[in-house]
């Protein structure tokens, strides 16, 4: 089974990519930022608020392909300023409490001023015991 989710991002059509893609039990969510549906950046300069907003967008994308946050195995975060990592970690901890995916964070230049974080995730759909149904 292959399932794709398109969120209507400005680069999805031009770049021929999906926001999320599921192949069997494996799910990948593309780099996601705090761009609102209007195209406006959510909470410019606020790492915590942008992380919460972005993780909510990721949660929606996961649900659209039949997964949930509990299925996330790996998180990659790209931060414009690692001195703000504490705000990111706080929001990440709230979203993933008890799930504990592996996490990588790096400092990176993002696409517009005030954008503080971009996040992508990999997930595997499994039951409560970790069993994967192929």
Q: What's the CATH topology label?
A: 60s Ribosomal Protein L30, Chain: A
Largest sheet: 6 strands, mixed
- The fraction of residues in strands falls at 25-35%
Q: Can you tell me the CATH architecture?
A: 2-Layer Sandwich
Helix content: 25-40%
Mean pLDDT score, rounded?
95
CATH superfamily: RutC-like
CATH level 1 class label: Alpha Beta
- Helix-strand sequence: EHEEHEHEE
- Helical segment count: 3
* Biggest sheet strand line-up: 1-2-3-6-4-5
Q: Indicate the overall shape.
A: globular
Description:
InterPro entries: RutC-like_sf, YjgF/YER057c/UK114. It comes from Aliishimia ponticola. Pfam families: Ribonuc_L-PSP. This is RidA family protein. The chain is of the alpha+beta class and 134 residues long. It has a single domain, classed as 60s Ribosomal Protein L30, Chain: A. It is 25% helix and 28% strand. It has a six-stranded mixed sheet, covered by helices on one side. Strand 4 (72-79), helix 3 (85-96) and strand 5 form a beta-alpha-beta unit. Helix 2 runs parallel beside helix 3. The mean pLDDT is 95.
List the helices and strands and how they pair.
Blueprint: E1 2-5, H1 12-15, E2 20-23, E3 26-32, H2 47-64, E4 72-79, H3 85-96, E5 102-107, E6 117-124
Parallel strand pairs: 4-5
Antiparallel strand pairs: 1-2, 2-3, 3-6, 4-6
Provide a compact summary of the structure.
InterPro entries: RutC-like_sf, YjgF/YER057c/UK114. The chain is of the alpha+beta class and 134 residues long.
């Amino acid at each position: 089974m292959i399932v794709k989710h398109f969120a209507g991002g400005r680069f999805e059509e031009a770049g021929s990519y999906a926001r999320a893609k599921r192949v069997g039990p494996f799910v990948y969510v593309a780099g996601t930022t705090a761009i609102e549906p209007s195209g406006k950046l959510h909470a410019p300069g606020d790492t915590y608020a942008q992380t919460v907003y972005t993780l909510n967008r990721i949660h929606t994308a996961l649900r659209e392909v039949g997964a949930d946050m509990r299925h996330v195995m790996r998180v990659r975060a790209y931060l414009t300023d690692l001195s703000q990592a504490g705000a990111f970690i706080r929001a990440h901890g709230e979203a993933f409490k008890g799930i504990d995916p592996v996490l990588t964070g790096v400092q990176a230049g993002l696409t517009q001023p005030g954008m503080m974080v971009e996040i992508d995730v990999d997930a595997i759909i499994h039951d409560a015991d970790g069993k994967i149904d192929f």
